[in-house]
Request: fold
Amino acid sequence: MIDQKIAIVGGTGKFGQHLGKHMEEGNEIFISGSSIEKAEKIANKHEWGYGESEEIVKDADIVIVSVPISVTVDVIESIGPKVPDNALFCDVTSVKQRPVEAMKKYSDEVLGMHPMYAPSNTIKGQKVVLCPEKGKKWTVMEEFWEENGADLHFTDPESHDRAMSFVQGLMHFSELVVADVIRKSEFEGEDMQEFSSPVYSLITDLTARMLNQKPGLYGSIQKENPENEDIRKAFVDSAEELSELVEDEEAFAERFDELGEQFDLEKAQENTDKVIEFLSNEVR
Reply:
């Protein structure tokens, strides 16, 4: 990808800067931010152009919206009338249906993207989901991700959001429930660590890792994905059902075996054995 004017709306954020730095070679990068002062400061640091969102998209070849999930559609609606009909219009949020529908109103070239990694990581080996919706220019972004070694997966916005309701919505919500039960208990953190096995420590560390992030991100993931409401309801229903099922040893054992059919048990055992061995060696 060369000789492209790339407008990153929200380019002052961590992921916006991450993209800008990886795409700047041979291209012109222009960014906007929550304020023109912040955009100027970040742009000068990287030797990029900057301006108001509506201005930088006017003659752009590629427009990438990199803002919080909760305001993504509003931003798309705001800049959309200024985006050229033939510009590749993209977003990088973890929800795809509503942003893609909004972008389709303003451009003949639309690509929903979901990079499933933090900007502190390298791109190589990271999973990136692409939802090509209109036109053919989206292949320039396919080439960009491939050149940087990303693990690409292609789907449509509806299938993406459905999958993310399990991968993100369900998993994050279950961690929140676990954390809230612990919060309501009288069990102190030090006591938990004293009696924790490596597996329990790993589970609680993963929960704590999520809680170390900004609450707005995880709140938006739960709220903005239209599939998550049903997933949360299913979680509560299953929790209540299993709570009753533990009283019946035979029924519980039957359900336990059924649940195992949904997973690659041997591979999971192998993977977690490696992690447990590593954690055990760290403690010694």
Notes: The longest strand covers residues 127-134. The beta strands are 5-9, 28-32, 49-50, 62-65, 88-91, 109-115, 127-134, 151-154. Residues 157-184 form the longest helix (28 residues).
